[in-house]
Amino acid sequence: MKDPTLSVGVDVIEQEAKGLLALKESLDESFVHAVDLMSASEGRVIVTGMGKSGHVSNKIVATLASTGTPAFFVHPSEASHGDLGMISKNDVIIALSNSGETKELSDIIFFAKRHGIPLIGITQKKGSTLAELATIALLIPPMPEACPNGLAPTTSSTMMLALGDALAVALLKRKAFSKEDFKALHPGGQLGARLKRVTDVMHKPPHLPLIDEGCTMEEALLVMTSKSFGCVGVVTKDNKLAGIVTDGDLRRHMSPNILREKVTSVMTANPKTILPNALIEEALHKMTGTITCLFVVNHKTEPLGLLHIHDLLRLDIV
């Protein structure tokens, strides 16, 4: 028999999932018009809400700001005591209220109407004050709350959160917000590390373990040992990367005569490489399985640098 507590958890998630599916089906041209308003704005997006809607508002603000749309939260009560001055005529306001009748929002709503500031209302009630006075009303479906008493905002706040994400991502697409733009706004943490360029992290000459293709394995081992990367790149006479010799290659070709063999007979030809302007995320994708070293080359396959798995470990992204 399923544990009663587990059953409650499953039921809550199922109910909120139904709410999200209903929200998906309810999206219409009003959503497009809301994105149009936000995209055309020369100011910022002001998001406001009271209680749980306020907490959701803060999340929407964070998502908008991190994806290239300047945004901040204005508390409805503080707005009535001077913070209305934070809102300019070039801004767009998003107001969240499940009932559409949150009294603390009234001053912001009428401030928007008085100054001709576009107002996007997110509410469940079609005929509510917020829905009627908003420039555009985005209605969330009237789904039951997951709370057994039908009181605590659960399904409704989840739908509001998802709708905020949908607006932010639609704006991101509209503005062609790129990974490079994202990197500029996320310089710290693991996410910022994944968005670094390979050239920012790679080892550069004269520290590269390279050897000419005419050399022997004895010479290759000396280079591998001195550079301490556990590999050596084999280059042609015109300085193009022909192959790589790794610890694994040594084990596979181990014999009494290995030191006298030509490096070309032991190397792995045409190894995986990466361009210097590639993201670290791409390098991480290539360094799967047993690959611990990745040579960085230009379009002529001339070696420019080397990326080692330890470099990624230091970035704390592996």
Question: What would you say this structure looks like, in words?
Answer:
It is a single chain. The protein has 318 residues and is α/β, with parallel strands linked by helices. The protein has 2 domains: 4-177, Rossmann fold; 198-314, CBS-domain (Roll). Helices cover 44% and strands 16% of the residues. It contains 15 helices and 12 strands. The chain has helices spanning 4-26, 29-40, 52-66, 76-79, 106-115, 129-133, 155-174, 179-185, 189-194, 198-201, 217-227, 247-252, 263-266, 280-286, 309-314, and strands at residues 45-49, 71-73, 92-96, 119-123, 136-139, 210-212, 231-235, 241-246, 268-269, 273-274, 293-297, 303-308. The strands form 3 sheets. A 5-stranded parallel β-sheet has the order 2-1-3-4-5, with helices on both faces. The protein has a 4-stranded mixed β-sheet with strand order 6-7-8-9. Helix 3 links the parallel strand 1 (45-49) and strand 2. Helix 1 crosses helix 7 (155-174), helix 2 (29-40) crosses helix 7 and helix 3 packs parallel to helix 7 (155-174). The protein is elongated.
Question: How are the SSEs placed, and which strands pair?
Answer:
Layout: H1 4-26, H2 29-40, E1 45-49, H3 52-66, E2 71-73, H4 76-79, E3 92-96, H5 106-115, E4 119-123, H6 129-133, E5 136-139, H7 155-174, H8 179-185, H9 189-194, H10 198-201, E6 210-212, H11 217-227, E7 231-235, E8 241-246, H12 247-252, H13 263-266, E9 268-269, E10 273-274, H14 280-286, E11 293-297, E12 303-308, H15 309-314
Parallel strand pairs: 1-2, 1-3, 3-4, 4-5, 6-7, 10-11
Antiparallel strand pairs: 7-8, 8-9, 11-12
